[in-house]
Amino acid sequence: MFWRWWVRDTFCKAPSSPPPVLRGRDRVGVSWANRCSTVEGKPSTPTPTLPLSTWGGGNSLQQATRTKRWSFLPAAALAILAVGAGPIPAENRIPAAITRTVELPRNHPMTMPTDVAVDALGYLYVADGVNDRIARFAPSGNLDAILYGPKESPLSRPIGVAIDRDGALWIADTGNHRLLVRSPEGRDYKTISVPSAAADKPADPTGVVVRSDGARTYVADCDNQRVLVLDNATGRWTALGEWGISLGQFRWPFMLCMGPEDHVVVSESVGARLQLISSDNRWAGQIGHFGVAMGDLYRPKGVAVDGAGRIFVGDSSLGVIQAFNDAGKLLGVVTDDAGQPLRFDHPMGMRFDAAGTLYVVELGANRVAVVALKTAGK
To answer: What number of CA atoms fall less than 13 Å from residue 301's CA on the CB side?
Structure first.
């Protein structure tokens, strides 16, 4: 199951050889009440209530994200996390503040959410995969709807979400090895099968992004160490990459976003870097390398690009967000007013809206942080 694998990927150093493909996403039932104004595609039978302990460790997993994580990190990272590394140099600061958070009631929360998308009207769509659903929030931050997908074939462990130029919602429906496209009006869904890598290697879509012109869709196929490209006009798929450490190879590609010059930015959660794919599907460079110092990446997950072309990447283990240009130069670290790194509880998917507000999914806090950057990119 992805969430169990996430713990391993958080705690362990990047492997030097490819381990077995991880499969078998366990069914997890989480009891929660129907408290939203709209419930779309809700199953006719209630979701069974199962103790979290039935889910690969359950409560011990949640405890690990809060207390046991530190013993697995390198000594340098432990020092940074425990006592801080002092203020960030002034020239590397990107001052910001968390203005509010978006979450469900504490008695019925999201459970380890993974990604967020924002539409032109300011509605947020948050992947709540443990609960097999997407939570939609109004611009005010109030819950607006719960989306389960089509009634005849509901969502299963969705991890990634994106909005295209027409306002359609694209969902990386990981447990069903497919994409779902919800129409802008919300009246229907289109199902797109994602090709397997082999007969015994089903697709593992964890991230999705659509080009600004709508011509192609890019999918991170995490377990299969590749990025898949869908020609939206013809329906033809093209596979890019394989397992490895060179340019054009991957170690668990996880999330994507559109970058400067229509490059696609891909995060490698274990490869500890970002890779860029050009508009003609050529390899266009990489950003970052494994480490825990400023400018390094330890466990990069979410990526987002602002209006100035700065590439922001969240490090899920260190809990910080850094920004780079497309040549790989560090532009800064998101900090508070005192110059200390602004900390997030296991940051995952991120998105900017048209006004430049940054939305950061905090997997460890079961919420989305709304971040205002106090200086525009240069």
So the answer is: 29
Give 33-37 contacts, CB < 8 A, sequence gap 24+: 33/107, 33/108, 34/146, 35/105, 35/108, 35/143, 36/143, 36/144, 36/145, 36/146, 37/143, 37/144, 37/145
Residue 352, classed as helix, strand or coil, is strand
- Distance (Å, rounded) from C-alpha 35 to C-alpha 27? 23
Q: Are 64 and 330 in contact (CB under 8 A)?
A: no
Query: What is the H or E stretch that residue 333 is in?
Result: strand 330-335
- CA 345 to CA 153: how far, in whole Å? 33
Residue type, 84: G
- Measured distance CA(114)–CA(126) in Å, rounded: 7
Q: How far apart are CA 120 and CA 136, in angstroms?
A: 14
Q: Are strands 226-231 and 237-240 parallel, antiparallel or unpaired?
A: antiparallel
Distance CA 314, CA 359 (A): 11
pTM of the model: 0.82
SS3 of residue 214 by DSSP:
coil
Q: What is the spatial order of strands in the sheet that 237-240 belongs to? A: 205-210, 216-221, 226-231, 237-240
Distance CA 130, CA 25 (A): 10
Contact status, residue 213 vs residue 164, Cβ threshold 8 Å:
no
Quickly count: other Cβ atoms within 10 Å of residue 77's Cβ. 20
pLDDT, greater one: 133 or 29: 133
Cα separations (Å) of 220 from 79, 204, 340, 348?
33, 8, 33, 15
Output phi, psi for 264, to 5 deg: -95, 130
Residue 205 CA, chain-centre distance (Å), reads 11
195-235 pLDDT per residue, tens: 999 989 999 999 999 999 999 999 999 999 999 999 999 99
Which pair of tokens denotes residue 101? Answer: 């958070």
